């Protein structure tokens, strides 16, 4: 399982935020990319996307990570 954890400093609109991306295999031979985001210290929102192969899952995770880095998140 590969995990990327990103954080963003507090802003005028709210507290510090987090974004987590994980690539996981499931029991059916598929690969899941799990996205979690929210305010640090609170329960976040979760979204799961399924892929048939690891390469497609990895590309989706990379695209999402790069998008969040461009929005001001930093690697924790």
UniProtKB/TrEMBL annotation:
It holds the Pfam family WGR. SUPFAM superfamilies: WGR domain-like (SSF142921). Residues 12-74 form the WGR domain. This is WGR domain-containing protein.
């Amino acid at each position: 399982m590969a995990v990327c954890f990103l954080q963003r400093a507090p802003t005028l609109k709210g507290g510090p935020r987090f974004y987590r991306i994980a690539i996981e295999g499931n029991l059916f031979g598929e690969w899941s990319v799990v996205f979690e985001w929210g305010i640090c210290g609170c329960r976040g929102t979760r979204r799961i996307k399924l892929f048939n192969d690891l390469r497609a899952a990895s590309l989706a995770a990379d695209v999402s990570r790069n998008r969040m880095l461009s929005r001001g998140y930093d690697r924790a």
